[in-house]
Design a protein that fits this description.
- With 316 residues, the protein is α/β, with parallel strands linked by helices.
- It is built from eleven helices and twelve strands.
- The chain has a seven-stranded parallel beta sheet, sandwiched between helices. Strands 2-1-3-4-5 form a five-stranded parallel beta sheet.
- Helix 5 crosses helix 7.
- The protein is globular and about 70 Å long.
- The chain starts with a strand and ends in an 8-residue tail after the last helix.
């Protein structure tokens, strides 16, 4: 059994182990794979694991031994599922491994905006507090979360966990969701998008990227929001129009934009959001806690084992 991991570095830069996988067959791990290298590296592989390397219809046609593709992520858009089904190739993913970590990142971003902890820590390393005539100082706007309205677009695993944390902070939660109203717990109010945009102090995006949700946030929807709104995107970069959000920040239409994802990753150096002082951008790391990556590898390896035992799990 030949197993090839095409881009193992992001999930496991060396602090975790592929040892259990190595007990199942001959394992070759590549840190990164360019598109033009995919077929050559996966030649003769029975099992291929990929995170961001695309395996489409063309690649599959040139890999006649391929029986299994394991996606090292929850989203599986890097694989042509229709072509895989036609060729009898099993495709699996790793669902819900990063729920806690991504929810934590949402509030890390939010607290950065409301409390500016890093700003004060850096200033005080440079002596700002030591020179202050009073026992305290503040040079940013500070605000409580309790009592604010937190709007959530999408109540999947992550959106649901974010809602629970928002409620624990004492916030009123409104959600745009396909879930029936009667299934929602006390503290979550189902609303349409227009009401969510118009009434929320914080808006967090947790919906999948589809043709209908691409650029869900654009110039017109931004105009529906209050100028004090904090917008958070830990879902998918193309859910927002980068240029429109940048202009809204520059024009005072939007108070802050917090994102762990961008339309293009890595971004172009001239992406307008990178220059905005009220844009807080992290490099797609919400999923990357050691605990989440450990769960990712655990489930990915279990997926391969289940496939080899002819009882596949997490099949897409």
């Amino acid at each position: 059994m030949k197993i090839v991991i095409l881009d193992g570095y992001s999930a496991n830069p060396g602090d975790l182990s592929w040892q259990e996988l190595e007990a199942m067959g001959s394992v070759t791990v590549y840190d990164r794979t360019k598109p033009e290298e995919t077929v050559a590296r996966a030649t003769d592989a029975d099992v291929v694991l990929t995170n961001k390397v695309v395996i489409g219809r063309q690649e599959m046609a040139l890999l006649p031994r391929l029986k299994y593709i394991g996606v090292l992520a929850t989203g599986y858009n890097v694989v042509d599922i229709e072509a895989a089904h036609e060729r009898g190739i099993t495709v699996t993913n790793v669902p819900a491994y990063s729920t806690e970590s991504v929810a934590q990142m949402v509030f890390s971003h939010l607290l950065t905006v409301t409390n500016h902890t890093e700003h004060y820590a850096i200033n005080n390393r440079n002596g700002r507090w030591s020179m202050n005539p009073d026992f305290c100082y503040w040079d940013t706007y500070l605000t409580e979360l309790a009592g604010k309205t937190f709007g959530i677009v999408g109540l999947g695993n992550i959106g649901w966990r974010v809602a629970q944390i928002a409620i624990a902070f004492g916030m009123k939660v409104k959600a745009f969701t396909s879930k029936p109203t009667e299934t929602l717990p006390i503290g979550i109010t189902k609303v349409d998008l227009k009401e969510l945009f118009e009434s929320s102090d914080i808006i967090s995006l947790h919906c999948p990227l589809t043709a209908n949700t691409r650029h869900l946030i654009h110039a017109d929807t931004l105009r529906q929001m209050k100028p004090t709104t904090i917008l958070i995107n830990t879902g998918r970069g193309p859910l927002v129009d980068d240029q429109a959000v940048s202009e809204a920040l520059a024009n005072g239409q939007l108070a802050a934009y917090c994102a762990d994802v961008l339309t293009q990753e890595p971004p172009q150096a001239d992406n307008p959001l990178l220059k905005q002082p009220n844009a807080y951008i992290t490099p797609h790391i919400a999923w990357a806690t050691v605990e989440a990556r450990h769960r990712l590898l655990r489930v990915a390896i279990d997926n391969v084992r289940a496939f080899l035992n002819e009882n596949p799990q997490n099949v897409v």
